Protein: SYNPR protein
Amino acid sequence: DFIVTVVFSFLWLVSSSAWAKGLSDVKVATDPDEVLLLMSACKQQSNKCLPVRSPVMSSLNTSVVFGYLNFILWAGNIWFVFKETGWHSSGQRHASDTMEKQSSSYNQGGYNQDSYGPAGGYNQQGSYGQVGEYGQSQSYSQSGPTSFANQI
Structure:
């Protein structure tokens, strides 16, 4: 996953840069003033050529911005994917070994939580005898809630 994320991030950077360069070339090629200079009819003094309107490039500029924002998103995701790899956890082993040595030097006694078992907690045993539809005897037993505790 890490390598794929790095490759996609790099591809977003390259493709966004290529699209930005291509858009820049399109803007130069479609500039109304430049187009008028290239037309032979507009070179004659008797003809007066003026652009009617300039091209709207705002949506194309927005696509370039979102391309670079997507690259930033992928590049930022590299760190989180790296944390999930074995390479990140191998660097953390030394710190965890130190923590294990420190925690083993303290003598921590366990807590006796047996008093919360069936004798100390809520426990109800009952039998309810019921007669079924065709004279069959049925009995149900009920026990109280069970308490579980995490021990360190």
Notes: The radius of gyration is 38 Å.
